[in-house]
Amino acid sequence: MGRSLMARRIKREFPGVTAYFDRHQKRRYRFRQKGFSTEIHGEYGSDEFRRNYERAIRGYRSQEIGAAATKRGTINALVVSYYKSPEFVSLSDSTKATYRREIERLRDEHGHRLVEQMKRAHVVKLLEPLVDRPSARNNRLRMLRMLLNHAVEIGWRADNPTAAIKKMRTGSQGFHTWTDDELSAFFAHHEIGSTAHTAVTLMLYTACSRVDAVRLGWQNVSGSRLQYRRQKTERFSEVVVDIPVHPDLQRVLDALPKSQMTFLETSGGRSRSANGLGNAMRKWCNAAKLPDCTSHGLRKACATRLAEAGASEREIMAWTGHTSPQMVQIYAGKARRGLMADQGFAKLRQNEIGSNVDEPKEDGSTK
């Protein structure tokens, strides 16, 4: 059955449900209605699928009614309360969507359970299915910890049973940081003037994330500077990213018409969505034979370049818009290992031979 025909059938038989393929190319189904979203498990059209669809409808309606229609003390009620908390409300829309995906999975399976009865053993059991996927396990643990912290705050529990449970080591360095060779390969495949070239140059020299990249336009440029407020923090933050426009970025922007509302608009002249940019980036990188490269890797590449140039943590934070030095310390620490190794080696050789071996300075030159 063709995708368009399947989509029409789903829309007719199960309003609110859409089909999609996961990373294993397995067809899955999701119910969405006015901000409410949940997975529909089971083979399409089966009794299990229909039961889960009815459950999704009830979940949506119960959310519309509010916490009063949810049994007090259950995980279901805790989730409703958390969604109204200042902690959740203050998050960006993209972060809310990320949190909701994991929270709704927990809610679907365990929403009827009582919060006060949850023990450490129950938390461990919830994490067991993900033991072979450390990142997914850690993410679930983080969501449980936040929910149960909220339970403590509103007086539903005296303690948090996740407190003594540690995260698993993932062995991952997170998103891959683009190398100079990978950037050269990308630009060789996607020439200046293409949206692909513009997108990568924009994110490389601004360290902006996808949600910000799709909003940037000439309205953000003043003279030789680019200014914007990060969408992730803009609701409750006065931090504005205010950076000089790099000459390489200026050359790319100069090729764009001033009539464009945003630098990365679609061929139809419409603003591009963050998800749309993510999908396009995947296609562009695959076309350039760069399967490990992502848009977030460009943000890391920019921060790493600044660190390698000797920029301080605060200077990097001013560029990336970070409000905490934690992530910046990771970039800076990795970037400076090579420099520190060279400095250490120079000292070792100077001690061994007693000669006046020049020690590399922060800018890479010698005395």
From TrEMBL:
Protein's organism: Sedimentitalea nanhaiensis
Domain of life according to the entry: Bacteria
Alphabetically ordered keywords of this record: DNA integration, DNA recombination, DNA-binding
Keyword Nucleus included in the entry's annotation: no
Family recorded in the similarity comment: Belongs to the 'phage' integrase family.
InterPro entries xrefs: CB, DNA_brk_join_enz, Integrase-like_cat_sf, Integrase_catalytic, Integrase_recombinase_N, Tyrosine_recombinase_XerCD
GO terms (BP aspect): DNA integration; DNA recombination
Tyr recombinase domain location: 173-345
The UniProt record lists the keyword Transmembrane helix: no
Single GO MF descriptor: DNA binding
UniProt protein name: Site-specific recombinase XerD
Residues annotated as domain Core-binding (CB): 73-152
